[in-house]
């Protein structure tokens, strides 16, 4: 269960399945997802000569290049894709989404592909951030995406993003776990129930059981854990994170 290898597999698929010279377009959230597991030299070796943001409307038109788009299925990214397809800057488009795509989104993309430049649309479940092989996070910053609503209940946006990130992780690892959550935590229970509902609703993707049959997902609530935040890990990585801060593998010394 190596989370880094899971996303590297999808990254390799994107840049090798599309042969020839190409450009890689990412959105605001998929950019750090890819940058954590891949390098510019690796992408260049796979004939990816340009990496840019799909929101950048000032890109040059290069119809001789193929375009690989890897974006999250959000309203903002879909709108950026629609703007791109109405005025395509590249010859062919291969679109990959980092999570489960709604049927209505596919229909909207098809309606706006008047130039018929889209060659492929796929779901690649890489919708989480992996600083290390055994650690992942969803990318929720409390100052930007508050976790709590009134009292000790989930903020709906944070809950939805957490369910999406966990489901992508499970799909990338090909696991359908038994879900266990902390009995005294209403938030842990809510997260477990929402994730279980999604797995049942998308049974065609998750299957009926995990490959090994023994996968377990334990959901615990940090509010009921007063000890762990007091522990100090005496490693360089842990000390740098605690004293300075590490954001997606980068340390800002300013």
UniProtKB/TrEMBL annotation:
Name of the protein in question: Vacuolar protein sorting-associated protein 45
Species in which this protein is naturally found: Coemansia furcata
